[in-house]
Design brief:
This protein is of the alpha+beta class. The protein is built from ten helices and six strands, in the order αβααββααβααβαβαα. It has two domains: 323 residues, Outer membrane efflux proteins (OEP) (Up-down Bundle); 81 residues, Outer membrane efflux proteins (OEP).
Length: 441
C-alpha cells in the first residue's frame, strides 16, 4: 500500500509539472485539461477513494487468516480470616498472574469470507470507473470553456475589422460633409454607427476576458493577465456532412463509458451482498487453540515452578448455529434484495441517459450542419450585398441610412455564422467523445 500511495503522489506531481510546462503562458487544450485534472479536488478525492478501496480489499483478504491474541493479567485481593490465637480478625492478601496466548480461524462460513473479498475487489473496480467519470466531466467542461475563449477571440477580431472599416467610412463621410456633398444627418449617422461598433468591440473584449477567467478558474489556476491559449488553425469549411447513427454510436460508447461500467460493477456488488447476507442463516465452524499458565501466592511452589507446572495447552472446534436472531439476518437479506433491485434500476437509468444523450448529440450534429450551411449562405449573400452597398455609398448613390442598414445586416449575419461554426465544432467533439476518441482540437 505504501508503494501504491507513493506512486499516486508521484503521478500527481508529474501531472502538475506537465500541466504547468508553459513558459510562454500559452496553453493548449491538452495542457488545460491535464492541469485541471491534476488540480481538481473531486478528481483527487476519487483517487483517495480508490486507495481506500484497495485497503478494503487487503482487509477482506486478511479475514481468512488466523487471529492471534496474547493476554497478561495481574489480580490482587484481600479476604478476612479469624486468628484463633488472639481471637482477632485480620486480612490476608491473594495475588495471582495469568498468561494466555489464543488463536482462532474460521473453517466454514458458507463462503462468506470469499464473497467479501470478491465484493471488495468489485467495489474497487467501480471506484476506478467513478474516478474516470469525474475526469471525463472535468475534461468536457474544460473543452467547452476553451472553445468559448476561441469563439470570443474570433468575435473580437471580427469586431475590430468592422470598426476599422467604419472608421474609414466615417473619415470619408466627414470629408464629404465638409465639401457639402452629404447632409449633416448622413454624417452623424455614420458617426453613430462608429460609436456603436466601438461599444460592440469593448463588449466583445470584455466577453473574451471573462471567458479566459472562467477557464482559469475551472483549471484552478490563479487568474493572470498573461494567460492565453493556443488558438488552433481551423478549416474554412468545417462541415463534414456526417449522418451519425445513434444506435451505432451507443454500441461503441456503452462498452467504454465509465458510468455504465461503474453501474455494472455496483450491480454485481449488490448481488454478492445478498449472498453474503444469506450466509447468516448458516452455521459457522471455527478452530481455536491456546496456551495458558499462571501463578498464585496461595500455593507453596515458587513463581517459576508454578508457571511450568500450570502450563496448559488447548485446542478445539466451535460450531455456531444461528437459531433465533431477532430477524436480523432476514432483515439483512431483504434489504440486500432491495439494494440489488435499486442497482439494477441505476444501471438501466445510466443506459437510458447515455442513449438519450447520444440521440441528442447525433441530432445536434445534423441540425448544426444544416444551420452552418444556412448561416454561411446568408453571410456570403450579405457580404456581396454589403460590398455593392459600399461601392454605391462611396459613389454617392446610397445614403448613410441604407448603407448602415446593410452594414448591420452583415454584422448580424457574421455573428450568426460564427456562432453556428463553433456550435457545430463543439457538437463534433462531443460526438467524438461518445465514440471514445480523445478530446483534442
Amino acid at each position: 500500500m505504501k508503494i501504491i500511495s507513493t506512486l499516486l503522489i508521484l503521478l500527481i506531481g508529474i501531472g502538475n509539472l506537465l500541466a504547468q510546462d508553459t513558459s510562454s503562458n500559452t496553453w493548449t487544450l491538452e495542457q488545460c485539461i491535464n492541469h485541471a485534472l491534476s488540480q481538481n479536488i473531486q478528481v483527487q478525492q476519487t483517487l483517495l477513494t480508490n486507495l481506500s478501496n484497495q485497503v478494503d480489499v487487503e482487509q477482506a483478504k486478511a479475514q481468512k487468516l488466523p487471529s492471534l491474541n496474547a493476554s497478561v493479567s495481574y489480580t490482587a485481593s484481600w479476604s478476612g480470616s479469624d486468628n484463633t490465637n488472639s481471637w482477632e480478625s485480620d486480612y490476608r492478601d491473594n495475588q495471582s498472574n495469568n498468561f494466555s496466548l489464543n488463536s482462532s480461524v474460521t473453517l466454514f462460513n458458507s463462503g462468506k469470507l470469499t464473497k467479501l473479498i470478491e465484493q471488495a475487489k468489485i467495489d474497487m473496480e467501480a471506484g476506478i470507473y467513478d474516478s474516470e467519470a469525474v475526469k471525463e466531466t472535468v475534461s468536457l467542461n474544460i473543452l467547452n470553456a476553451f472553445m468559448q475563449v476561441i469563439f470570443n477571440k474570433e468575435n473580437v477580431e471580427n469586431a475590430k475589422i468592422q470598426m476599422e472599416a467604419t472608421q474609414e467610412q466615417a473619415e470619408y463621410a466627414e470629408a464629404r460633409y465638409a465639401a457639402g456633398a452629404i447632409s449633416k444627418t448622413d454624417y452623424l449617422q455614420v458617426k453613430s454607427q462608429l460609436a456603436t461598433e466601438k461599444s460592440s468591440l469593448i463588449s466583445a473584449q470584455s466577453e473574451l476576458a471573462i471567458s479566459k477567467v472562467n477557464l482559469m478558474q475551472m483549471m484552478l489556476l490563479p487568474v493572470s493577465n498573461d494567460f492565453d491559449i493556443s488558438y488552433p488553425e481551423l478549416a474554412e469549411n468545417i462541415n463534414q456532412d456526417l449522418l451519425p447513427d445513434a444506435t451505432e454510436v451507443y454500441s461503441i460508447s456503452a462498452d467504454i463509458r465509465p458510468t455504465l461500467r461503474s453501474a455494472a460493477f455496483q450491480k454485481q456488488s449488490a448481488e454478492l451482498n445478498e449472498k453474503i447476507a444469506k450466509a447468516g442463516y448458516m452455521p459457522v465452524l471455527s478452530a481455536n487453540t491456546g496456551l495458558s499458565t499462571g501463578y498464585s501466592n496461595t500455593l507453596d511452589a515458587t513463581y517459576t515452578n508454578q508457571l511450568n507446572d500450570r502450563f496448559t495447552p488447548n485446542v478445539g472446534l466451535t460450531l455456531s448455529i444461528p437459531i433465533f436472531q431477532n430477524k436480523q439476518v432476514k432483515t439483512s437479506v431483504a434489504k440486500a434484495k432491495i439494494s440489488y433491485q435499486n442497482a439494477e434500476l441505476t444501471e438501466k437509468d445510466e443506459q437510458n441517459t447515455l442513449r438519450m444523450n447520444i440521440e441528442q448529440v447525433c441530432l445536434d450534429v445534423m441540425t448544426s450542419q444544416y444551420e452552418f450551411e444556412a448561416y454561411k449562405e446568408v453571410f456570403e449573400a450579405n457580404e456581396e450585398s454589403y460590398a455593392l452597398a459600399e461601392e454605391k455609398y462611396k459613389n454617392g448613390l446610397m445614403n448613410s441610412v441604407d448603407f448602415i442598414f446593410e452594414k448591420n445586416n452583415l454584422i448580424q449575419a457574421q455573428s450568426s455564422f460564427l456562432q453556428s461554426k463553433y456550435k457545430l465544432l463543439f457538437n463534433y467533439k462531443i460526438l467524438d467523445f461518445y465514440k471514445g476518441q480523445p478530446i483534442t482540437l
